[in-house]
Amino acid sequence: MDNASSSTSASQPRPRNIVVGVAGGIAAYKACHIVRAFKETGDNVRVVPTEAALNFVGKATFEALSGNPVSTTVFDAVDSVQHVKVGQEADLIVIAPATADLMARIVMGRGDDLLAATLLVATCPVVIAPAMHTEMWFNPATVANVATLRSRGITVLEPAHGRLTGKDTGPGRLPDPEQIVDLANAIHAGTRLPQDMVGKKVVITAGGTHEHIDPVRFIGNSSSGRQGFALGEIAAQRGAKVTIVAGSVAELSVPAGAEIVPVVSTQDMYEAVHKHAVDADFIVMAAAVADFTPATQATSKLKKGSDAGEDALSTISLVENPDILATTVTRRSKGELSKNPIIVGFAAETGDEGTSALEYARKKLQKKGCDLLMCNEVGKGKVFGQKHNQGWILDATGGVSEVVHGSKIEVSAQIWDAAVAFRNA
Questions:
Q1: Is 325 within any annotated ligand binding site?
Q2: CB neighbours of residue 275 within 10 Å
């Protein structure tokens, strides 16, 4: 092998060994999407279902999707000590869905099937995504079991709220597969979900705003809302009550239990934040709002060209929108926000020949008066609409810390770490 080939091989990380555990619940079909997602990124996936899970999704389906044999018992492949080997070789274990029964067996240290035995020997990160009826989730036994699992270093995700089996609706729904995969990948990369925001109310703005010129045209930007929703996801998983004031956003999964307040314009967002920020513990302004809006909005579509007359599109008069971040800081200083919240701003900067993006962010932090400011460089192919982010967190005391490149879920965890630490300090 030549040196160039050796260098290329050495620089490529080996595929991860991921175990996808599946318990016997109606949401077991979503595990198929989780397996597919891990396989598409080059991971080696082994599906380990319970016997009950195979009542919902057949063995052949899991084998076809994973490319590996499927077994439920400790008595298969005894010659290779499979009931020990699968867990020992795992880099990450994701159980989705996890039933109340399975979590109870894990707490007791049972090893009576392959999945339970795998967990007994595993030393890698374990992520459990529960799915069950609301009454089961809130049952004191389940609550105690979840607390025990978390105390042992196992990540137990908060379930989503929504339609359950039958006509029931409430907390207990399995999160969307993409949410589970994103969180699991972040946890494998080192993200932790401490329950340090339990009982805290969080208000987050997300996405872009649309400032309408006429019924069919508007001034906007490329923001997808991914960072704001990722912030909501991490806050919810850390125990917070989350409200997201969402402008124009992509098709994104709602964080566990979050309230979504849809808005269109910057004025709409200003009014929604004014209402929901009153009793918030944390306020994060992650939206990419328009600084200006048309002075008048035409009631019918404007024309273009020489025949348009006074209704031409050639000139649009603009007026300044309210500054949501600055006015929220002012309201806090006047005592209008009951909990004296930590306020986090965002600075989407490009920098120029004379001034860096970070220097512009320092000026913005000083001008706005918020506690923390997340600065990221934006531009073509950067941040907006992307799944990754990076930058710096500046604080009101003059501190600066780097936000290392990672998924927006990972970046969100870094931002919340900084916000919680700032509040505690």
A1: yes
A2: 12
